[in-house]
What does this fold into?
Amino acid sequence: MSTTESSTIETPVIETQRERTDLPLVVMPTVIPTMLEPLSDCLPLLHDLARVRFYTDFTLDEDTVVERIHDADAVIVIGLHITDRILERVSGHVRCFAFGGTGVASYINLPKTRELGIRVCNVVHYGDHAVAEHAFALIMELSKHVGLLDRDMREGQWEGIDGLDLYERTIGLAGFGGIGQTMARIAQGFGMRILVWNSHLHADQAARFDAQPVDDLGDLFAQSDVVSLHLPLTGDTAGIVTAKELDRLRPGSIIVNTARAEVIAPGALAARLQRGDILAGLDVFDHEPLPEDDPLRHVPGLIMTPHVAWRTPGANRNLTKQVVQSLAAFYRGERMNVVE
Amino acid sequence: MSTTESSTIETPVIETQRERTDLPLVVMPTVIPTMLEPLSDCLPLLHDLARVRFYTDFTLDEDTVVERIHDADAVIVIGLHITDRILERVSGHVRCFAFGGTGVASYINLPKTRELGIRVCNVVHYGDHAVAEHAFALIMELSKHVGLLDRDMREGQWEGIDGLDLYERTIGLAGFGGIGQTMARIAQGFGMRILVWNSHLHADQAARFDAQPVDDLGDLFAQSDVVSLHLPLTGDTAGIVTAKELDRLRPGSIIVNTARAEVIAPGALAARLQRGDILAGLDVFDHEPLPEDDPLRHVPGLIMTPHVAWRTPGANRNLTKQVVQSLAAFYRGERMNVVE
It folds into this structure.
């Protein structure tokens, strides 16, 4: 496969099979740098099916994105929101969006793509380990304060802070798909007691992980030292965690969200944290990037990361492979990871 | 049991059974505040055996310590070095040091206490979970950067950093006592491959943890993505990790030390880190508190915490109970946790 690096300085571009103008064009208008290598590794899967053009700089500027995909047949979407305005401007020629993530509903207006007859593909289970590990990294920082203590030591302090134990404490998992089950495996290693709430949960599925099902989401919050959310964002789960559930968290407990901010009712977590008696770790937010004036910036007990849980070399490999495979399937007239 | 709080403002004191001047006196000359409650909970174990006096403020001043234990029969030592000068000044009356930790050799000159006929007790396995969890907290910060990303976000950044995977990566455990084995259980939960080096290691002991024994310490360093040290400090282990072993760490690998700084040859880790191609997490240092001019303060890739791994509510409960039990044994003419 021929790969040519463009000489244009303003818009760094990589194109494959550029001489094959008979093939449809796949464009990735913006890139997270660490995705580039695993994506390139997968491109042989599109040989003789499509040529591919990558823009190798990172931009979220809407006009730039539209300009870059003006001649695209399919678009690879990673780390970018496809706004309704973008959809309207490219719907004449773009026939497929291949989204590098699971929760595509937060990034593309699916009723609108259905109406326009554009296929949307996502990727599944690519980041079960990456996300579960990041959820535990949030739990660890809230329990052991390594980041905080490192900073304190560099400022000359030595006093330290006592840690919290994970061993023999209770973790409550809301959601028990691939990520929730990976959480349970990790929690088993730490010797934690495991509670699980899920809308459809078979008792024997929980039992395989030494986890105890809890029927009511509020009871899960009341009985856990650590609550971690692993629900997909759907019509049923949007706002499912309300002030009522958050109120049942005991003083000193920890809540972690690496799923989608929208599973928590708007403003409810900031209000609960304002009381100052619980801790929280968030990788997801109602508005991303987190606005300067977001109330979460001013509540106590909160640790935040900028939606990075899914970004590891292993997850990147899984994700990029599925993105390219779903495009190959599209051009072969097959279906893979098609979002209905 | 009667507990009276002294009215002296300068030296806050708690005494039990103070009217029982017929009983020998146990003194704790300095306290880590979070130890106070679990220690108090154990004091009924000394009922009719000894009266106890706690100084409830934290000091490391040698003269203050000597003054506070001038009439002590036994001394509880937590977070304090008993220097040779202290030993000489109190050896006429102190008959027992009850040390709140395992590695007492770093805190009390044992050949000298033997020579003086003073009993030294330590505590064992009290913090297996606390220390192993903290080692993983260091590994997590180096892999997932939660502390760093939280700081970046609060400064208005959103770009993020990719994480490292733990799943399917290799952890090498140097030492396989209670803490090393707890590390293996946690690593199993993360789906890591586990290598173990120990001076005395039975293959079936490793097999119980799905761990693979490695005969040579250098090979362990060369074959692991993450190396974690869990060796006790003894004549055999002092300086056992030399520049030669550290040189075999591959670029990008992580080394964590929550055991004792002295198991690494002096200066060897700072020199290795100076090359800038590995990451390290340290909770222990050759000199504690870490001096302002220590070379470790200026090397890249290092996360530090101030010897706090052992400080959790669970470990505090285990530790304080053993400290008081070993004193009760001393006064009953029995032996418990006596360091030979």
